[in-house]
Every structure is written in structure tokens, then in C-alpha cells.
Amino acid sequence: LVSRDLAKTRETAAKYGIGHVTTELAESLARPEVDAVILCTPTQMHAEQSLACLRAGKHVQVEVPLADSLKQAEEVVTLARQTGLVAMCGHTRRFNPSHQYVHRKIAAGEFHIQQMDVQTYFFRRTNMNALGQPRSWTDHLLWHHAAHTIDLFAYQTGGEIVQAHALQGPIHPTLGIAMDMSIQLKSSTGAICTLSLSFNNDGPLGTFFRYIGDSATYIARYDDLFNGKEERIDVSKVDVSMNGIELQDREFFAAIRDNREPNASVAKVLPCYRVLHQLEQQLNA
Length: 285
Known about the structure:
- By secondary structure, the protein is of the alpha/beta class.
- The protein folds into 2 domains: 6-92 and 248-266, 3-Layer(aba) Sandwich (Rossmann fold); 93-241 and 272-284, Dihydrodipicolinate Reductase, domain 2.
- The chain has helices at residues 6-16, 25-29, 46-55, 70-83, 97-107, 141-157, 244-258, 266-284; strands spanning 36-39, 59-63, 87-90, 113-121, 161-168, 180-187, 192-198, 206-213, 217-221, 224-227, 232-233.
- The strands form 2 sheets. It has an 8-stranded mixed beta sheet with strand order 5-6-7-4-8-9-10-11, covered by helices on one side. A 3-stranded parallel beta sheet has the order 1-2-3, with helices on both faces.
């Protein structure tokens, strides 16, 4: 287990029976018994640490986003291809039972997306995490939160994103980021996506997806799914767990065991980062 606060890291390691604790990733990467690494670290470190893992010969899963620039994302994809190691990015929406249910309906030809309407809302006017604890790094609506929806839209429609537009509100004077953002996407399938993001919303936090299609409307809230009338849909039999993060980790380990490319491999999610780069250029113009 690697983290920056040694005392807290030891405490967590003791709780879960983890034998080796350090504050240096390089120390863990040097250990021959380590086969794979899961990175849950600040956005700005993701690409650099993923590259370090691959160079050390370790399989790696990094949480969203893969990187905070297209150049770095491409570097990780290139090195993963060269090493042949499993390199995966935690685009968890691909794994939530709710979104898997919709994906299977689409694959069976029973549902076609016409529009996705998505709201990603947090109340974060100071630099806090989701638990209300102070953060040592700054989060980002575009490179972190929008990445989930942009990847999911392409994944669920099965098309390429052919149009992408973004608007943002004022830059926060101390955090240095936009606190509000609006993104519109169009797929080569003809489907459209409207995404609203805010760190100013005083209300339920998280991301809520409305799938509007030719045969139904679905509302996905993390692992839970409802129809357009807010009636719950049973997704308990969709997979072996009701927890998207567990299912994501299971896919990582299965890909290593089976020596195959995982769902949400860094190569498969790279198109999302091309769109993020395009949107960033629009916003900075």
C-alpha cells in the first residue's frame, strides 16, 4: 500500500492485513512480488505514474482520467502497446449494472439512443473532496468529470463523436478552474448528448444519466436504474456484483489472468481524450 501520509497508510494496511507500506511508489514497483498496480491518486499524477508502472513491468489500472492532456494519454497508450501489459483506465460507467443493462438492450437491438441528458453536480466552492475533507490538489470538470460521460456516450452509441461543443462559466479566483460547464456532443449514429456540470450545485451530489431512446427512457444513478416514470428496474442479475467499482476491478484481474485486452483499456478509451483535448482548445480560444 502506497500513500503520502505514512501513519494513515499503516493504519489502513493493518485493517486489511497488508504487509508492505511505503510513501514511495518506486519502492513498491521495485518489489518482484508485485504484479499489478491500481492508482487512485490526484489527476495530475495519473499519466506519469501509469508510465512508471509500465516501465517497471507491472500491469496497471488508473482511475479516471487517464491523463490531463492528450499528449500524455497517447504516451501511456503507446507504452502499453509496446510492453504488452494490461493497462486499463477506471471508466466505471462501463461497469455499473445500470449502464450494463442499457448496453445489453442496445447490443440486442432492443433500444437505440436518441439523446443522453446528463447532470454532473457537486457543491465544491472550497477545495474539498466528496467526503468534505481538504484536498491537496484541484479537481477539474472537463478532464475528470466530463471524461466519464464522453466515454460512456461513445461506448453506448457504438459510434464516433463527430461534433463536440463546450461553454464554461467564470474561472474561480482561487481554485483557478471553471465551476460550471455545458457540453454538447453528437455521435456518428445521429444520437446527441447534453451534459451539464457544476461545482456550485447545493443538492444531491453525483452524476445522473437519462437515456432517451426509441423504445424506452432509462435513468441511471450509479448502480441503480429506473424507467422514465421513476420506477425501479431490477439490475441485480446483470453481473456478479451490484458495485461498479468492484466489477471494474474484477475485469482488470480477469484480463491479467486471461492475457487479454480489458474493457476500458487505455487504447479503447483514448478517443474520449481526443474529444476532451478538442473541447479544451475551444474553451481556451
